C-alpha cells in the first residue's frame, strides 16, 4: 500500500475542493493514484465544493452558545432556507457555536479550531458539508462577550431549534448586584436590541464617521429652509438628538415600556439589583445582512439544474 503524504492530500484537496478527511480516504482507496482519487471523489459527490463556492450563500442560521458569564454568536450561511432546516446542518452550526466560545470572536481561530472531538477543523467540516449536502456554505462571522461581574444575556429570534435562528443577540451587563434581576433585564434588553437594532451602547461609542455623514445630510436638508446659519446649526443639533434616539441603545424608547428609555430602565433595575448596572457591549447578528445577493438568471439556473452542473 502506498504511503499517503500530507502533500498528496493537500494537492487533491486543491484539485477538488473536497474535505481533508475525504481526500485522505480517496487516496487510501486508490493506493495513492491522484487521478483515480479525483474520480473516486466525483463518484461520491464530494468534489463539487470548489465549484459551488462561487454561488451566493445568504440563507443559513445564526448559532448561539452560552457558558456562565460568556456567550458567542456565529453566522453560517447556505444557499437555501431548505438546508437551514436540515438536522445535520443544524447540528453542525450548534457545534461551531460551541467552538466559538473558545475562539473569543476570532474568525480565523474558529475556522482552525477542532470540530467537536474529531481531528477535522471547523473549516474542513464546512467544506465537507458542502460536498455532502450540495450547496455552497460559508462560515461568515463570529462574536464573543464575557464579563467578570454581572451577566451575559442572550436572545434568539425566529428560533429553528434551541440556540439556532435568524437573529441572535448577546449583551453584557456589568454589576456586583443580585444576578436574578440582571438576568431578567438582560433578556429584555437582548430582545429590545433584536427589535430596535441600535448601532452603539451610548453616543460616545458611535462611529464618528457615521455621525459626521448624518450631520452632513441633516445640514444640507436644513439649508433648504433658507434660514440664517445660527438657526440652521440649532436645527441640525435638534435633528441629531432625534437621530441618537433612533440609533443609540441607551437613548432608545424601551420596547417593553415605550414611555421610558433604556437608560431609565437601567436605573430602575440597578435599584432591584442593589448595585449600579452598566451595559458594556452587545452584538446583534441578523442572518444574511449586508450580503449582496446579486441578480439571479432564472432561465440559466433551470438550464444548469437540468444539465446537473
Can you give me a brief rundown of this structure?
This protein has 13 helices and nine strands. With 309 residues, the chain is an alpha+beta fold. It starts with 5 loop residues before the first helix and ends with a helix.
Describe this structure in words.
This protein is of the alpha+beta class and 309 residues long. Among the domains are: 6-47, Helicase, Ruva Protein, domain 3 (Orthogonal Bundle), CATH 1.10.8; 59-166, Tetrahydropterin Synthase, Chain A (2-Layer Sandwich), CATH 3.30.479.20. It has 13 helices and 9 strands. The chain has helices at residues 6-16, 20-29, 34-43, 49-52, 81-84, 87-103, 107-112, 122-133, 179-196, 208-223, 229-247, 262-273, 298-307, and strands at residues 59-67, 70-78, 137-146, 150-157, 164-165, 167-174, 253-254, 257-261, 278-286. The strands form 3 sheets. A 4-stranded antiparallel sheet has the order 3-2-1-5. A hairpin with a 2-residue loop joins strand 7 and strand 8 (257-261). The mean pLDDT is 88.
